Amino acid sequence: MNLDLSRRDFVGLSGIASLGIVSTLSNSASANSTQSFSQTPEGVLKDLLDGNARFVSGEASSPRRTPKDFSALEDSQNPEALIITCADSRVPPEILFDQGVGDLFVVRIAGNIVNGSGVVVKGSIEYAITELNVPLIMVLGHSNCGAVNAAVKHIDKNDVPPGALNELIGLIKPAVERSKKLPGDLLENAIRENVVMGVERLRKLDAIVSRPANASPIKIVGATYDLRTGRVMIMP
Ligand SMILES: [Zn+2]
User: Fold this and answer.
1) How many angstroms separate the alpha carbon of residue 205 from the centre of ligand 1?
2) Residue 233, strand partner residues
3) CA–centroid distance, residue 88 to ligand 1 (Å)
4) What is the pLDDT of residues 138-171, one digit of tens each?
5) How far, in Å, is the centroid of ligand 1 from the Cα of 147?
6) CA 120, CA 49: separation in Å to the nearest integer?
7) What's the rounded Cα separation, in Å, for the pair 82 and 3?
8) Right CATH number for 38-234 from 3.40.50.10260, 3.40.390.10, 3.40.1050.10, 3.30.70.100?
9) Of 82, 154, 179, 209, which is least surrounded by CB within 10 A?
10) Residue partners of 152: CB distance under 8 A and separation at least 6
């Protein structure tokens, strides 16, 4: 078997094998969740950035979005990346990375908060790591983020937003505090620091720390999405 098979090729072959058409592949197909044929984290990152380049240039291929693509994934999924990003309507990961159904496991929460987030977010992230074995995790912030802007606006004021919103932006305030020490625009820096703190938090998750030494490699990156240009920039 060609070991250069991409994850998607492999998923496709798994589907064929499950129909009994390629019976010799059935054992390999059962290894689907072990990522025997996965791309490297670097390969996945390149795939996402290539997709973003197509999106930015107006040449998106909009792959794998037909009913057939959906039904092929009825029994299993094998996403190539976990994207943790903002709930903002202007930041749809499958579109801006030019990916299709089944390609991305996406956790969306206002302000793309990882640091201090509760068990629902943490559990969703750990599921992608331990059960889906994603090789790449990206925390994706974006320009003009309303949640981060709210944290910037309210950090020195006594007035508080209504309901749970105050608690939510409270989780972003440490990033704003760190940004105050940096030169440049406070909001832009806070958006970046919020991503940095998310990446730092991920590296301390039990699911990451306790990974066996022989587990498939996993890469965690921070990135920001520019609403004006459509471009995703990986943070150093
Ligand atoms: Zn946002």
Assistant:
1) 23
2) 224
3) 5
4) 999 999 999 999 999 987 777 777 788 889 999 9
5) 5
6) 28
7) 23
8) 3.40.1050.10
9) 209
10) 176, 186, 187, 190
